[in-house]
Amino acid sequence: MENIIKQPLLTEKMTALGELRQYAFAVDIRANKIQIRQAVEKHFDVKVLSVRTMRYKGKRKSQFTKRGKVEGRRPHWKKAVITLKEGEELDLLEAS
To answer: Are 51 and 22 in contact (CB under 8 A)?
Structure first.
């Protein structure tokens, strides 16, 4: 699994948590906390204090077409919230 970190999550809540040295990323659904920690430390050159992960099911979506109702689902995804050690900082706008 080379590409563990897919993208940073830049929401209003996550921007506010940046002051507490917490940052969120969408990560590969198969990645565990150890792999996520190593990927963040290698990619951003920082020290990680803790990793919390959450798994989300994809939302159901439906669309009405000429042939009737087409139903589908968005893909499942995983979010990781990273807390950095004291004195470490991460600027996601420049890094991504």
So the answer is: no
Q: Domain residue spans in the chain?
A: 5-86
pLDDT digits (tens, 9 = 90+) for 8-21: 999 999 989 989 99
The position carrying tokens 């689902």 is: 73
Question: CA 82 to CA 39: how far, in whole Å?
Answer: 11
Q: What is the pTM of this model?
A: 0.84
Under 8 Å between Cβ of 96 and 26: no
Beta bridge mates, 51 = 82
CATH fold for domain 5-86: Alpha-Beta Plaits (3.30.70)
Alpha-carbon distance of 56 to 14, in angstroms, equals: 17
